Structure to design on (145 residues):
């Protein structure tokens, strides 16, 4: 359901922004490293973004019990937000390209997957468009010890 809402919202945002390419490199890194987030596109008209933010999050999921007594608990264990330095003006016609370096803390926990436990990392890029649905992209990443 949430995925459908994001897809619908991104379709509406595409009317203003055009096609957005969202790229995170590298997809694997170690604590203390830097992740590059790039996005590009070609808007149909001039747009002043209210805000462009890169969010890096780690979420732990633990499943306990079995059968009808099975429960999953979630907890955010790491969160870091990096704002693009200034309000972005995207001009009509020529393609735009923006890149931002996002550092990861030296004590960041590594990605982990087991049968009932996991720690997932994601990088999310929400673009806040004035008086229009926002665009959002998300990418899963791996953090090695």
């Amino acid at each position: 359901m949430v995925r459908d809402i994001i897809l619908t919202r991104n379709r509406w945002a595409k009317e203003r922004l055009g096609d957005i390419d969202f790229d995170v490199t590298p997809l694997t890194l170690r604590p203390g490293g830097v992740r590059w987030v790039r996005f590009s596109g070609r808007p149909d008209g001039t747009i002043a973004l209210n805000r462009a933010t890169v969010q890096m999050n780690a979420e732990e999921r633990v499943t306990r019990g079995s059968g009808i007594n099975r429960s999953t608990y979630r907890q955010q264990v790491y969160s870091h937000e990096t704002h693009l330095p200034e309000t972005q003006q995207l001009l009509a016609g020529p393609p735009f390209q923006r890149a931002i370096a996002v550092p990861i803390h030296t004590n960041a926990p590594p990605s982990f997957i087991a049968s009932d436990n996991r720690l997932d990392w994601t990088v999310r890029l929400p673009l806040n468009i004035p008086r229009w649905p926002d665009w959002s992209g998300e990418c899963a990443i791996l953090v090695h010890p």
